[in-house]
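Quick note —
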Amino acid sequence: MKIWVDADACPVAIKEILFRLAQRTKIHLTLVANHSMRVPNSPYISFVHVQQGFDVADNEIVKRINPNDLVITGDIPLADEIITAGGQALNPRGELFTKENIKQRLNIRDFMDNMRASGVETQGPPPLNQTDRQNFANNLDRIVSQYLRSQK
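Predicted structure written out below.
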């Protein structure tokens, strides 16, 4: 298992949780973004800098993942591609995207896009709070623990 991060929009607090996890578990973590960012100096943490452009980082992640890899993303179409490729997708608020819920999430996303395109003003998601960070950490720990148990 490797963990990939759609890092352009990933909150700093979530990246910090992931950095600690990579160090503790020795699971390789790769951040992918179209702008430079600092990552801890670690043999388990790497950064891939991609060119600017629509979905360039997403496409790079899809190209590199293997089945059972975990991708951290709030991008629902990317999560759908990851699930189709046999990977897992977890958003920064701790929601695990699954085969059972991803199509519904895509439908809601498309509906909201259509609303915005027709001039309806919609609010974005609220800022990440402590409960979101805790949900993320708990679900991340559950996924990684299951993986580590399966390797024994």
